[in-house]
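Worked example 3. Consider a protein that binds thiamine diphosphate.
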Amino acid sequence: MPPRKTAAATTAATPNVSAEELKRYYREMLLIRRFEEKAGQLYGMGLIGGFCHLYIGQEAVVVGLEAAADEGDKRVTSYRDHGHMLACGMDAKGVMAELTGRIGGYSKGKGGSMHMFSKERHFYGGHGIVGAQVPIGAGLAFADKYLGNDRVTFAYFGDGAANQGQVYETYNMAQLWDLPVIFVIENNQYAMGTAVKRATKSPALWKRGEAYGIAGEEVDGMDVLAVKAAGQRAVAHCRAGKGPYILEVMTYRYRGHSMSDPAKYRTREEVQEMREKRDAIEHVRQMLLTGGHASEDDLKKIDKEIKEIVNEAAEFSKESPEPDLSELWTDIYADVAPQDA
Ligand SMILES: Cc1ncc(C[n+]2csc(CCOP(=O)(O)OP(=O)(O)O)c2C)c(N)n1
Ligand SMILES: [Mg+2]
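Given these inputs, the predicted complex is written out as structure tokens:
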């Protein structure tokens, strides 16, 4: 990954960002990080079962792209989905309670980490099958095109998923039908224990869209403002009816693939270097401080607010009861076929 510009240079190059916006991004990224740290703790305490894939390190990707989205736009992603839910406005309590398998969770505690949805926030999961969300994303975009509105869909997937055949079938159809879908490749450098360079000889994943005539670009995913700017270009392209767009967002996950990861495929030094030199939250923090947009005290206040939200979510997720056995028989079939989108 190329070295990032200094905080001062980045501020100078992005004069159109207000202090309020910067603070919002700081707050949103911090919420994801603290939420994930808490989820990791609850997992360690045995309160979360099954798999749990944390998003720590990748926060700028989803916060930057949500900053480019409008109300009514849709999103669908993989199992590494807690950050996406929080960033699109889903409630931390409902997400955490789902992780602990409680009735107050988004799927009444019956789905867990990889099976949450919100019709209100246009969040369509949470998919455990690698790459499965990509054709689903194209389908969501197809619905919007069919209905004649100007919504766009963000279909997030990983560098590993980018080697799946269904991704390319989807590219072909999406371009053929000019579907308003943004394919977001979250390139965090690894697919479980496999580094990108061990899995492909053509590392510019976004360029694979060229074979189908799909426009795209690579973005620094540790810079929330760069992500937002690229997101705006992608959204404008889709809303103008020009078809899909690919964003390959270069990022890094600090934690293991899931909570059970022997971490033998990379060195501690590599992770430490990313944390120290490229951290997206620290980057915005420095921009706020050096630009005189916030004081240490202002930031401490934000940190405290976020901690409270996360602690409340954790309390709720412990106190909310487990679903009753009768819930086994509910939410299996839809009562009515959805008519709107
Ligand atoms: C079809 C399928 N094959 C394999 C797996 C096992 N698996 C789960 S996650 C994963 C790696 C995916 O990596 P990537 O797409 O880079 O996403 P990341 O975990 O880095 O976010 C694999 C192989 C699966 N869940 N589904
Ligand atoms: Mg990956």
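Take a moment to read the result before moving on. The chain has a mean pLDDT of 94. The domain at 17-319 is CATH 3.40.50.970 (Rossmann fold).
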